Amino acid sequence: MKKSHILLVALSSTLLLFGCGSNDDGKIEYVEPVVEIIEEEPEPIEAEIEEPEPEEEVVVDIPPAEGMVRSRITNEWVTEEVNNTRPVSVMTPNTKTAAQYGISKADILYECNVEKSITRLMGVYQDWSDFERLGNVRSCRDYYVYWSFEWDAFYIHFGGPFYIEEVISRPDTEDIDGMSSKNFWRANDTGNTTDNAYVDTEGIKADIERLGYDLNYRSGYADEQHYKFAPFDSPNTLEQYSDSIIANKVDMSPTYPLTRCYFIYNEATGLYDRYQHITNTNDGPHIDKANGQQLAFKNILIQNTYFEVRDESGYLAFQCTDSTRDGWFFTNGRGIHVTWKKTSDYGATRYYDDDGNEIELNTGKTMVCIVEDGDSFIVDDQKITSGN
Questions:
Q1: Which of 38, 119, 175, 315 could form a disulfide with 155 if both were Cys (CB 3.0 to 4.6 A apart)?
Q2: CA-to-CA distance for 353 and 301, rounded, in angstroms?
Q3: C-beta of residue 263 within 8 angstroms of C-beta of residue 296
Q4: Strands 366-372 and 299-305
Q5: How far apart are CA 365 and CA 226, in angstroms?
Q6: What single-letter DSSP state applies at residue 369?
Q7: DSSP characters for 184-225?
């Protein structure tokens, strides 16, 4: 809106000169003062504009599609069919000659020493519906079967030493052995004649049908809670524990001297990326050859475990059940000491904090590292010895 300034040309001091006049007869005439109105643009008023405060990011915890449910293994969204179908557990070598296909899709990945400090991996796959090439598949070790039991998984392997006969021959062991299956094949692109056996989804389904196994969970499994998960929209940061430690790098090299694997916390993704240093020229991300993805985990569980050496060849035995021992839990860049307990073959392994409360894992994949009693690993620059 414009302001008007009135300039009075005839002021009081000059009123006598210009406010009056005289005519010929001597009478005084009144003269109207001249008034000029000058229009001026108003000066702009600078208003103080308050910047809006940034809105907090809201995590929307809704299923991405109709019929999706929380996975009993990762707490992620999966279809009801996937959640109600028994998983598979697959024995995979972890040497410089291993050609690993599909391993990044493992929901749970176990690693443990076998003979001569070589490690072997066992991936638990909840959704195994679309594998064109899974493996390579290697031989069984009996302690892996007991870890497979607690997921009610079909245990997939390629033979094994005579130590496995007792557990494999049990009527409740539902395994698929590539040595007696026509659905496994050997690939010629691996560069060796040992680590080159594979299977696919159709082959697994054919063997399950051939062996008369049921795809549905057996009695007692469908409703059993395995891991305890924190609410998706309220993740476990471990900051509630006064003795939790910073864990940007978890280095398992002292425990696995040939694999020399380690995990780096990726703050951008909130996951632990896995690396290996199997040879002097093979130090880098642990990659799935099927899709080029690096293995990454939301949770890392470390289980210190009683073990024995069976013979001169170095075959090992681990106490998987009726055991209560210590370990560690890492997630979101921090770690705490825990105690783990497994009371039966098919019972879930439970993990407890130092106050005796069952810990809450975060939604996502989990890495389980089995550590021989007395072995060490390194968290950032801190050396931790099992049992301490």
A1: 175
A2: 12
A3: no
A4: parallel
A5: 14
A6: E
A7: -EE-SSSSSSSS-EEE-HHHHHHHHHHHT--SBPPTTTTT--
Please tell me the distance from the alpha carbon of residue 33 to that of residue 239, in angstroms, as a whole number. Answer: 84
Look up residue 157 and give its two tokens: 């392997």
- HSE value, Cβ hemisphere, 13 Å, CA-based, for 157: 21
- Tokens representing residue 140 in the block: 């069984």
- C-alpha distances out from residue 278 to 86, 212, 284, Å: 33, 40, 9
54: amino acid identity, one letter = P
What is the layout of strands, in order, in the sheet containing 185-186? 134-135, 197-199, 185-186
Let me know: does 100 contact 65? Beta carbons within 8 Å. no
For every one of its 388 residues, what pLDDT tens digit does the chain have, with 9 covering 90 and above? 444 443 333 334 443 333 444 444 444 454 454 444 445 555 555 555 555 555 545 556 788 888 899 999 999 999 999 999 999 999 999 988 889 999 999 999 999 999 988 999 999 999 999 999 999 999 999 999 999 999 999 999 999 999 999 999 999 999 999 999 999 999 988 778 889 999 999 999 999 999 999 999 998 776 677 999 999 999 999 999 999 999 999 999 999 999 999 999 999 999 999 999 886 656 799 999 999 999 999 999 999 999 999 999 999 999 999 888 999 999 999 999 999 999 999 999 999 999 999 999 999 999 999 999 999 999 999 999 977 5
Q: What angle do CA 365, 370, 372 make, to 5 degrees?
A: 165
- Could you give the CA distance from residue 24 to residue 188 in angstroms, rounded to a whole number? 132
CB-based burial, 147-179: b 16+ in 10 Å, e otherwise: bbbbbbbbbbbbebbebbeebbeeeeebbbbbe
What is each CA distance from 254 to 44, 82, 245, 261, 318, in whole angstroms?
A: 72, 38, 20, 9, 18
- Stated pTM of the model: 0.84
Of 341, 368, 367, 365, nearest in space to 353 by CA: 341
Token reading at 267:
């703050």
